[in-house]
Amino acid sequence: MFFLKQNMCLDDTPESDLFAKYLLEVGAGKNSNPDGTVTLYPSMRCGDTVDSLIDAIYPGIAQGEKPDVYFKDRTLLSCKNDDVDDLNMDILTKFPGEEKVLRSADSIVTDRGVAIDYQPYPVEYLNSLNASGLPLARLALKPGCPLMLLRNLDPSNGLCNGTHMILLRIKPHVLEYRILGGDGKTVFIPRMSIEPSEGDIHIPLSRRQFPVRLAFAMTINKSQGQSVQNVGLDLRTSVFSHGQLYVALSRCTSASRIKVLFPEKEKGTNTPNIVWEQILAGIT
User: Fold this and answer.
1) Is the pLDDT of residue 5 over 70?
2) 130 with 227, same domain?
3) Rounded to an integer, what distance in angstroms lies between the CA atom of residue 26 and that of residue 247?
4) CA 245 to chain centre
5) pLDDT score for 270
6) How many Å apart are CA 25 and CA 18, to the nearest integer?
7) Mind listing the pLDDT tens digit for each residue in 151-189?
């Protein structure tokens, strides 16, 4: 039997060893305040506005094209899809270049998977629907921006759900990308019909759109398994499920490179930490 005892995501320094112990305490719900919050490092506070968080993680984002490593080494995390979409649009507005809006074709499908001839719902309503893993009906893009793939298209060639890419060119029926990291392979991805997971939306929606989303920011849940050099956390909406705060904090290799945006009323660095101790019972 083998035991994994060394955190390979952290720098091998005394500071990182202390941070690793701190992360374990956060994950176990230890050292919490009486009100159920946990105190983050004072150095993590970056300001009181969204712009201050963006500037801390994406310095100089408005000044010309960036190398791939710039986007590979940084990300913003938030708890909710709506907040992530807002952050992505805020950064895209700052990002240089001409914006191109790609709109989806939404329809209702029958039990046999065929789109019906009439639409019982207004198109505007169908376009407003959103769910995890579903591309936006209104997809705003600029050449050079980072994107995340939402489907497993060709795993053997690196096109998996969660793959990060850089947009190169926008065509009417296909987008040209460069995979972020690795050998920088160039790929072409067409529009496709995508249906949300059962139970995510109460109607049988089919959305024909490019299977990507902007990747300046992502949800905490989507970030699991990734490690980056610089992480910004939007905690204006606090975590709401077991282990979310631990996952968010452990995406970065050093506490000094984590910046947090707290709610306006929070003048310190306290934030709720959700831990179900029953799940951890018996684990040493």
Assistant:
1) no
2) no
3) 10
4) 14
5) 93
6) 11
7) 999 888 888 998 999 999 998 889 999 998 777 789 999
Do 144 and 51 belong to one domain?
A: no
Cα dist from 18 to 151, 232, 269, whole Å: 38, 20, 18
pTM above threshold 0.90? no
Residues 266 and 155 in one domain: no
Measuring CA to CA, how many Å separate 42 from each of 45, 103, 237, 256, 274? 6, 43, 19, 10, 20
Residues 92-118: tens digit of each pLDDT: 999 999 999 999 999 888 765 566 655
Q: Choose between 23 and 115: higher pLDDT.
A: 23
Question: Taking the CA atoms of the chain, what radius of gyration do you get in angstroms?
Answer: 20
3-state helix/strand/coil string of 224-262: CCCCECEEEEECCCCCCCCCHHHHHHCCECCHHHEEEEC
**Which stretches within the chain are classed as H helix?**
14-28, 50-57, 68-72, 81-94, 123-128, 244-249, 277-280
One domain, residues 110 and 172: yes
